[in-house]
Amino acid sequence: MDMDTVVAEVAAAVGLAEGESGIRDILSAVLNAEPAAVREVSRLAELPVPIVAAACNELRKRGVVATQRPVRLTTEGRAVVAAATGGDLARAACAACGGRGVVIPAELAGLAGLLHEASDGAPGAKTELDQTHCTVDTKISRVLRMQEANALAGQRILVLGDDDLVSVAIAGYAAGTAGRAAPRRLTVLDADTDVLDWIAGRLRIADVPAELVRHDLRQPLPADLVAGFDVVVTDPPYTVAGAELFLSRAVSALVPEPGRHVFFSFGARRPDETLAVQRAIAAMGMLVRSLTPGFNEYLGAGVLAGTSHLYHLRSTATAAPLLAGDYDGPLYTADSRAAVTRPYRCAGCREVLAVGPGSHWPKISQLQAAGCPRCGGTVFRPMPLSSRGPASPVRLA
Fold first, then answer.
1. In the prediction, which pLDDT does 270 show?
2. Do the Cβ atoms of 283 and 222 come closer than 8 Å?
3. Which class for 205: exposed (0-12), middle (13-18), buried (19 or more C-beta within 10 A)?
4. Which tens digits make up the pLDDT trace of 94-152?
5. SS3 readout for the chain
6. Domain 3-85 has CATH 1.10.10.10
7. What is d(CA 143, CA 149) in angstroms, rounded to the nearest whole number?
8. pLDDT per residue over 186-229, tens digit each?
9. How far is CA 136 from the centre of its chain?
10. CATH homologous superfamily of 106-315
11. Least packed by Cβ within 10 Å: which of 3, 24, 48, 237?
12. CA-CA distance, 192 to 163, in Å (whole number)?
């Protein structure tokens, strides 16, 4: 078994945008986590679940990954992958913090209980708004990261979109420190009235003053929020447009002086999309103080394995938004999917079929209802947009 040949063949078969390095990341993740669910491999490799599943299927054909689930290497595959990656060497990753760089102290158990209660009764996530609630540990870890960065006590903080209830975590943490970690100003802006109403009730119980503003970020910030904050926290839709818009509004909200903070959560994307987001960050005069992969964990976020990265950004003297006026373009992931035709492979006969505008099946649900035109199967796996399959043409109708 030649590792280089296997990696090249699988990368070509899957059409992975990350190329051969992405397959090597998947193999390394399997080696270090086996036996592991595809979701766990996806998290470690920082690649979408459907892509990892497709790669593992190709690796099974070549005898590298075993046929049984959860994912594990064959005896021969394990030896080859370990030799190629140094997988049997000691690992330096921090076991205590899980790679976050933050350990939640035992004395915050009370805060965790408060946040579990707040989360359990919160409004359900609205997928049309790209809402996916983060875990309680993530809420607390974000606050601790802010405190470590001197971006909490005495600061003017704006939360742009807060279905994650970060404002409640900030308020609860401040209350637990007898006010020593309390921000000078706490403002929450969200387009979802249900979220704002729920936060208002939680903050009332905690007796923490806060401003709650209903506003759609497609429009510029209200005048009284412009240039008034030291810190902005945001977890926008995981699209390039979403990142550019939310970061533009964040920069507009910052006091126009160097060193102000933005804590920006964003999921792993294709290399060209990640590059576009990082170029936007630089173009807005923001620098990356730190980037922690997999810092955020979410409930039910299947495609991205329930994780996203945390960027800590700092403003410079030239900081300015990319988007200053109204925005009426696509924003949410559903908007992007609606405008793109994606290939799906039938799990039964491996026929590749196009789903999207201009195809016979505008939505995957319609293809599932109709069944594969070749074999009648109803299970279809999404393929990368760059891939059309090396052996099978895409059938449009």
1. 80
2. no
3. middle
4. 778 877 888 899 999 999 999 999 999 888 878 777 778 899 999 999 999 999 999 99
5. CCHHHHHHHHHHHHCCCCHHHHHHHHHHHHHHHCCECHHHHHHHHCCCHHHHHHHHHHHHHCCCECCCCCECECHHHHHHHHHHHCCCCCCCCCCCCCCCCCCCCHHHHHHHHHHHHHHHCCCCCCHHHCCCCECHHHHHHHHHHHHHCCCCCCCEEEEECCCCCHHHHHHHHHHHCCCCCCCCEEEEEECCHHHHHHHHHHHHHHCCCCEEEECCCCCCCCHHHCCCECEEEECCCCCHHHHHHHHHHHHHHECCCCCCEEEEEECCCCHHHHHHHHHHHHHCCEEEEEEEEEEEEECCCCCCCCEEEEEEEEECCCCCCCCCCCCCCCCCHHHHHHCCCEEEEECCCCCEEEECCCCCECCHHHHHHHCCCCCCCCCEEECCCCCCCCCCCCECC
6. yes
7. 10
8. 999 999 999 999 999 888 876 778 999 999 999 999 999 999 99
9. 16
10. Vaccinia Virus protein VP39 (3.40.50.150)
11. 3
12. 8
**At 166, phi and psi to the nearest 5?**
-65, -35
Residues 6+ apart with CB under 8 A from 84: 3, 24, 27
Q: What is the mean pLDDT of residues 30-40?
A: 90
- Return the residue matching tokens 């404002």: 167
Beta bridge partners of 315: 286
- Judged against a pLDDT cut of 50, whether residue 289 lies above it is answered with yes
Cβ–Cβ < 8 Å for 137, 104: yes
Residue 231 structure tokens: 């810190």
Q: Which amino acid is at 395?
A: R
Q: Are 312 and 149 in contact (CB under 8 A)?
A: yes
What residues does each domain of the chain span? Answer: 3-85, 106-315, 340-397
Check for a shared fold between 3-85 and 106-315. Answer: no
Flag whether pLDDT at 388 surpasses 60: no
- The reported pLDDT for the residue numbered 394 is 57
**Average pLDDT over the chain, rounded to whole?**
87
* Distant-in-sequence, close-in-space partners of 276: CB < 8 Å, separation ≥ 6: 240
Q: pTM for the complete prediction?
A: 0.78
C-alpha span between 232 and 245 (Å, rounded):
14
Show the tokens assigned to 189.
Answer: 């802006």
Q: How far is CA 79 from each of CA 37, 76, 84, rounded to the nearest angstrom?
A: 21, 5, 9
